[in-house]
Amino acid sequence: MGQSTISSAAMRMSANRLAANNQAVGITISDGYLRYHDSDDAILTGLNIDMPSGAWTCILGRSGCGKSSLLRYLANLLDDKADWRGELSTQPQCDLKDHIAYMAQQDLLMPWLSVLDNVLLSTQFGTDSQPSAIDAQRAKAQGLLQQVGLADKSDYLPQRLSGGMRQRVALARTLMQDKPIVLMDEPFSALDAVTRYRLQNLAHRLLQDKTVVLITHDPQEAIRLAHRLYIMQGRPAFTESLSVPDSATPRDFDAECAQLQQTIMARLEHDYE
Amino acid sequence: MNDLIQTNALSRRLKNKERISHPLVRILISAAVMIGLWQAVVVLFDMPSFILPSPADVFARLIERYAILLQHSWVTAQEILLGLLFGLTMGLLFALQMLLFKPVKHWLLPLLIASQAIPVFAIAPVLMLWLGYGIASKIVMAALIIFFPITICCYDGLRNTPVGYLDLVKTMGASKWQMLRHIQLPAALPALASGIRVAVVIAPIGAVAGEWVGSSAGLGYLMLQANARMMIDEMFAALFILSVLSIVLYFVADRLLKKLIPWEI
Q1: For chain A, how many structural domains are there in total?
Q2: Which of residues 36-75 of A touch B (CB under 8 A)?
Q3: Is the pLDDT of residue A194 over 60?
Q4: Is residue A68 domain-resident?
Q5: What is the pTM assigned to this prediction?
Q6: What is the distance in angstroms between the Cα of A162 and the nearest Cα belonging to chain B?
Q7: By three-state DSSP, how is residue B227 classified?
Q8: Reported ipTM
């Protein structure tokens, strides 16, 4: 009897830990400042961004404005390359680098791994990989491939897939990591218009309960998907919050959206001068 | 006009289909052409057989002395294969060292280049002195000659892993060792493969050069002996076997690499 109490307590504890891992996490940046070590000038300054948990935050800006740098900083890839000042807090309080998954413009599929093994890539790393869980992980990866519509391609090498399929595999790989925050660096920008549209819908559906930070230079993409929308402009870059329509994402393009796009274009055009 | 283009396209397609695509067939055809030319030169210029024997003479000698030729070929083949194995291992280890320990690279790289500046032929006599007339000195010769291209190709491959791959697995929490094992090493394989292709072609040079400087067996030894006794047809027979050996080695290696690294461009 006593034993069963202990074991159920242990189970509850591990369930709690699991919940903590999957719990939505929000990020708030106030007065952020970023400067690369090898440069005298700051690249980002006066950043105020609120990325609420479970919502899509889109950050728009021209190429080279520093929006990727911000994302790379959040992904913990700039630690030894750049100076950060300002406040970066998460709700609930946690170590950001353990809670993010990163999706880049290139699909970054390893050409020597099959589609399935690419989805399983993250299980090779970290300290908590248990060999006993391999079968479960494979089943989970196969299920994710099913969700992105590539279940029958799991044995293929990535070179046999089209650009859109490859990015879908990358999406499955990101989902496999099962992190509450997904950082996306223009993941749809290399695709043709229709493929991009379909992939946006797919990502929107599959990333429903995640906190998504999407970097993009495509105003339409931002308008379709954003719950929060920021424009990054100037040199060094700062952010400005724009209000988005109340309608549910992914939005159909209506007059309000067109109006917003015009506003964005006016701001960005100014930035190119 | 349109019809003309279409006809052209059609004839091109037909030609493509008919084109002899199998490499083996192409080799056989070019070999036949070469032998034909050779025979023509012998007949046309009335070459004495101690200057240029006819293909028929060489073929006859190949059949007559095949046991001896085979025995010496085996020695040379062993030297080449072991030299490849040895040189490959050394090159890989060197490249890994240079990647993992930056200061080591600054010390090793000049040394490596200097080692390549000295012709292998020049150090061959020293190797004979230290390692004897047996197979060991030839293995070292073959290994030395392939060591540089292998090291450089492998190092370049390891160093030029796409940054995106490394960033991605960093965000997945990969350790330095895991990155090397799961990303950098497999990503370097295509570069290493081109190093191996070069190595397979030049390793026989090292082995045979070693045999010329001093040996008691091998195709190089046989050629020296035949040359001294003016048995030019036997020399050509040995030469023929050596080229067949090199070509077969290259194609086997090429096939194997293509099979093992199917994603290579």
Answers
A1: 1
A2: 72, 75
A3: yes
A4: no
A5: 0.79
A6: 15
A7: helix
A8: 0.84
